[in-house]
C-alpha cells in the first residue's frame, strides 16, 4: 500500500497486490556411470509442474528421445566426465538451474574365439579372449562363473548342447 500526501494535506492511497511464487527445485535423476555409445536414461525430479519449461544440455551428448520432465535417452560417443545441466522455469516464470556429472567409460574391446566352430556334445573347446591389457578375464557358462584367470584362455571339457560361453573383462 502506498499513501501519498501533498503539501496541501490532500492524500490518496493506492494498493497493489503482488503474488510471490515459489522457485522450483531442480534435481536430475541420472546414472553416475555409463558406457560410451549406450543410451542413458535421465529425468527431472522436483517441484515444478509438467506445464513448466525444461531446458536440458548434455555436454557432447546426443538426445535420442524424450522431452520435458523426461525420461530422456541420451548417448555420448566420447568418454570422460560429462555435465548434464537442467534449467527449470515454472508457469509463473521463476527459474532455477542444476548440473550433474556423468562419467562416460569406453566399452572394452574383446574378441572371444573358439578352437572349433562346430563341436559334438562332450568335445573339448578352447576359448581365447583378446586383446590383453585387462587385469582379469572371467569366463561364464550360462550364468555360472567358470574361471577367474588373468590369462586369456579357458578350456571347456565336456561341451554340452546347453553351454553358452560368455566372457567378461575387468580393468
Order of helices and strands: EEEEEEEEEEEEEEEE
Major pleated sheet: 4 strands, antiparallel
Q: What is the helix content?
A: under 10%
Based on CA atoms alone, the radius of gyration comes out at 30 Å
Q: N-to-C terminal Cα separation, in Å? A: 69 Å
Estimated structural class:
mainly beta
Instruction: Average the pLDDT over all residues and give the rounded result.
Output: 81
The total of helices stands at 0
Beta-strand share of residues: over 45%
Q: How many beta-strand segments? A: 16
| Uncertain residue ranges | none
Which of globular, elongated, flat, extended, rod-shaped describes the shape?
rod-shaped
Strand order of the largest sheet: 3-5-8-7
Q: How is the secondary structure organized here?
A:
Elements (H helix, E strand, L loop, with lengths): L1 E4 L5 E4 L12 E3 L3 E3 L4 E6 L7 E6 L2 E5 L6 E5 L3 E10 L5 E11 L5 E4 L10 E6 L5 E6 L2 E6 L3 E4 L8 E6 L1
Parallel strand pairs: 4-10
Antiparallel strand pairs: 1-2, 3-5, 5-8, 6-9, 7-8, 9-10, 11-12, 12-15, 13-14, 13-16
